[in-house]
Amino acid sequence: METESSDGAETFAVYLAKQFIAKKGFVTDTVPELADLAPVSDIILTRSDGVTFQVICMIDREANPEKRFEMSRDAVEEIGKQCLQYSGTVSGNKMPITIQIMEIGRTPIIATDRDRLKALKRRRSIFSKVVISAWILDTTTASVWSSSAFSGLFAGRRFMERLMRAPRVPGAELQEPAPAVIAHERFPTLTVMLLAVLAAVFTWQQIYGIGPSTGLLAPSIQTLIALGALNRNLVFESGEWYRIFSSTLLHRDLVHLLLNGLALYLVGTVLESLVGRAWFVALFVIGAVGGALMSLALNPATAFSVGASGAIMGLLAAALACSFRFPAGPIRMRMQTGLLQVLIPALIPIAVSRTGQHIDFAGHLGGALIGALVGLGMLKTWRGSSLLPSFRSFAELVSLGGFAAFAFAFFPIASEYQSYKLELILIPNDQLPKSYADAQSQSSDLVARFPHDPRSHLFHATTLLEKRDLVGAEQELRAGLAEDGVLKSKFSPELEFRLRTMLALLLLDRREPDEARAVALRVCSELTSGPMRDALDKVRLCNLAP
Hints:
Blueprint: H1 12-24, E1 43-48, E2 53-60, H2 73-82, E3 89-90, E4 93-94, E5 97-105, H3 111-118, E6 130-138, E7 143-146, H4 157-165, H5 171-174, H6 189-207, H7 221-226, H8 232-237, H9 243-249, H10 254-275, H11 277-298, H12 309-322, H13 330-346, H14 361-381, H15 392-408, H16 410-423, H17 436-449, H18 454-466, H19 470-482, H20 484-490, H21 493-509, H22 513-526, H23 531-538
Parallel strand pairs: 2-5, 5-6
Antiparallel strand pairs: 1-2, 3-4, 6-7
Helix pairs in contact: 6-10, 9-11, 10-11, 10-12, 11-12, 11-14, 11-15, 12-13, 12-14, 17-18, 18-19, 19-21, 21-22, 21-23
């Protein structure tokens, strides 16, 4: 690459080629299949990273103003097909070959040249194995035309425009020192610890499950709610903010746990070594919060969400951003390909889980967005000579705060667990009788289905009293009062007073005044007025009470 322009200076094509070699990982070595491109090109560069294979053919019109790229589209495409052996596969699919044709000179970009080079690009499907694009660079005006999508915006256009406008860097300064990265992977201690925590919490879900499990070790929805599932109403209306953290550790079934565990292990083995343990935990916490907040913002108020997916998406997105710490080449490409194979399907809302529960794509998206933003910030502030990202003190603070938040979430869950457990034995609100007649007709069924709900015994006792079955009514009233824990924790004292008043009157009617007074004692001591006190006063049960 010693081509000179007419004034004896190094041409921009040569300078650009040196930049591609220094900054983008290209080399001047070619493969035999590119031999036919040599006569029609001044410079040929290639880059192979084990997955993709890229070719750049430069025509230096500063050195040869009359030269044009003169090979047909079919001929270029055939060369590309012969080079497919140098590209890798992803998920069993052969990756395409890309060939870029660049004409670089001091002449204006005119329609004739654009039309001629446009013909090199064939309209094909996304499954095309040879992708050809054409470029024209006018070094006088520092302008670029490209047949690539979006005029080459995402294919290097800005890079070339900056090079044409900025002062040239001497050749000795082109090759920047490679950034420092940890050369070997450490044992992912924290990753394994996180996996152990998720497994322990899943075991906890099985032990403290409320109601029957469904599917493959799938806890009931009551279990997930009791143990900290995320829900908009419970967070905003009931103030249960701890669910932002507790929901991250829960999983809906064994398959959900295994898939998240596998993704966490794959990203953890790379990221924990790359960014260090403090930043790894901080990214997990940040991803968990970002995923939960997006879930709360976008999901219906009736939705309940669980899983570490948001946190894991944050780790994956941050790892993708930090992968640019590695120079262009096989290591970076393998890392990015593996990460994208997990990230992309997780962010496309096209599936519903086998249990019929919708996948929380909002949580996935929130975790990925915050992870990508933090990862890009880490990459931007990461000093070249440092093995680990900057602001490790901040990462340690976030890690400690996250640990405290996850630990704190246990206490409200433990204190409210019994209350949620009792909900399962109570008559659901939508099944409560709407009228006195409904209560009479449904009382036998309600007692059979909800034997620990005092209200079912009250309904049935009322029905039996109507039938003058005093013995049966007494049994039902005593059964209702026997549910003392439920009465005191789930209902106001009025329900207990009603049961006691009815039982005291029934006992008095059966000529058992002493026991009637004992049953009525609590009502008499706590009520000074009202229908129940009036009924007891009328038969002088309160007046006779000691």
